[in-house]
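Why should sequence recovery work at all? Because a backbone constrains its sequence more than one might expect. Tight turns favour small or flexible residues, buried strands favour hydrophobic ones, and helices have their own preferences. The token representation captures these environments compactly. In the example below, the structure is given first.
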């Protein structure tokens, strides 16, 4: 273990290096970081909704033409206005299905996540000190007291869940509870309560549902294009309606391309939202504690622990404060931020928090 890692595990914050802070104004505050990450999250969520609408519109237009409902004349050139009813219906259907799926996950998801994670609810009498920390933070944030859970694991991790502050829960591992000092534990709990305050569970449920829906629809469309009657009805080889055939061929290519690209893009957007919400929760934690150093020390300890959380899954990975499926780590300080990562590098998170100490 390097001297830096030994200091991190002992809870000491390393001094900020000038190269780490060059991207931030000397007057940067946690509110500046919150505003920046809110804007980025809004752009990403809008992109996810737009991708869902475009995919739905393309599929709707293709089905509109292939069913014979589109009023196309022989040898007619492509007319987007003619396709508008089918495209609009498809876009609305895509957004509608995503919303229904998100509502289902929104109301049923919290209990499932806690159960899958092996979390056990505790009362104030089981750990008065932990409850006092959470109670002080939630009062500072103006939210109700969440239910508190413990996961019997030596891993160092925590997560929050619940559809809104009135139905929130926070869960921490036994290892995290045992190894963190009070100021470090306050930083982690403030991070999780910030997820609750920022309605991150609601946002991540929406984007995760959209990803699942996009993948499912794209799989179905590829199979329909391969085996279905795309070119057997109107616009087929034996039809004299050449205009409809050209339109269908173009839509066929568009839908096929989207069915390949959309799942990849939606996953990238979902993970980018997840990373931005982690940055936002870090800034929100500082707003509650007024102590960036407590969270910095906690993140260093979490990053230096390579113990995976056995009950975590790919579906729940984005909910935790650091990646639960393996090392996140001190060595990721030397790695680029991957577009396929659920969390930003711990080194980058610390770098942003260190900017608040100047």
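From this structural description, the recovered sequence reads:
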């Amino acid at each position: 273990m390097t001297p830096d890692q030994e200091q991190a595990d002992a809870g000491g914050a390393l001094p900020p290096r000038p190269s780490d802070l060059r991207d931030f104004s000397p007057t940067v505050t946690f509110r500046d970081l919150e505003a920046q990450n809110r804007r980025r999250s809004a752009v990403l969520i809008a992109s996810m909704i737009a991708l869902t609408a475009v995919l739905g519109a393309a599929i709707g237009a293709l089905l509109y033409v292939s069913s014979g409902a589109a009023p196309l004349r022989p040898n007619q050139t492509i007319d987007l206005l003619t396709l508008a009813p089918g495209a609009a219906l498809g876009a609305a259907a895509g957004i509608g299905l995503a919303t229904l799926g998100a509502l289902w996950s929104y109301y049923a998801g919290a209990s499932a996540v806690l159960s899958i994670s092996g979390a056990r609810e505790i009362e104030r009498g089981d750990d008065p000190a932990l409850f006092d920390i959470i109670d002080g933070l939630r009062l500072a944030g103006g939210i109700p007291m969440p239910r508190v859970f413990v996961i019997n694991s030596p891993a160092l991790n925590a997560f929050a869940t619940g559809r809104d502050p009135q139905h929130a829960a926070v869960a921490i591992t036994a290892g995290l509870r045992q190894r963190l000092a009070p100021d470090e534990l306050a930083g982690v709990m403030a991070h999780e309560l910030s997820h609750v305050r920022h309605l991150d569970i609601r946002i991540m449920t929406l984007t995760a549902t959209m990803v699942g829906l996009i993948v499912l629809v794209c799989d179905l469309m590829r199979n329909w294009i391969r085996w279905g009657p795309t070119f057997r009805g109107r616009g087929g080889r034996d039809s004299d309606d050449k205009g409809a055939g050209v339109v269908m061929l173009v839509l066929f290519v568009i839908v096929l391309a989207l069915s390949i690209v959309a799942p990849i893009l939606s996953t990238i957007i979902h993970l980018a939202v997840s990373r931005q919400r982690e940055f936002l929760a870090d800034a929100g934690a500082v707003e509650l504690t007024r102590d960036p150093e407590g969270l910095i020390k906690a993140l260093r300890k979490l990053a230096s622990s390579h113990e995976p959380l056995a009950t975590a899954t790919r579906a729940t990975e984005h909910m935790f404060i650091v990646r639960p499926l393996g090392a996140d780590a001190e060595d990721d300080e030397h790695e680029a931020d991957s577009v396929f990562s659920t969390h930003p590098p711990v080194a980058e998170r610390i770098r942003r928090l260190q900017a608040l100490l100047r």
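A few observations help interpret the result. The CA atoms of residues 53 and 284 lie 32 Å apart.
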